[in-house]
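User: Some background: our group keeps a shared notebook of sequences we're curious about, and every so often someone picks one and asks for a predicted structure to add to the entry. Today it's my turn. The entry only has the sequence so far, pasted here. Could you supply the structure so I can complete it?
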Amino acid sequence: MSGIADILASPRSASTYGLPIPATLTASSANVPPAWLWSDGSNTQMHDYKWSGFSVLVSNHGTFAVSLTANIATSGAQAEILIDGNSIGTVMVKSGNTSALSTPTLLVGSHGILVRSLTGTFNLTQVVVQAE
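Assistant: Of course. Here's the predicted structure to add to the notebook entry:
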């Protein structure tokens, strides 16, 4: 029991899992859950509440602006962006870039970004994460 108590009392190593941000994340590199694909064989064709996620790594705590880039979108297409399971809002998706949404302050370590289709269909190409 003393050994377990020593382990629990020791400082934890910093997480190193995830793609470092700020960065431009290619939609086809979505890794949450790893290697999971829909029946259309991609992580980029977004429709019918489909989602794609990314594990990211924050080296310096702060807030970030998250926007999406799509090369094809139906009229009225919308997506929700979630950080660590919490919605930061919705964006209208059109061909090109969406407006950016701000994250809460993210502490150093690993976090998750999830993009979920709400309405319409769009071909997600990038998730752009910039420091604010």
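Suggested note for the entry: The first helix runs from residue 2 to 9. The first strand starts at residue 19 and ends at 21.
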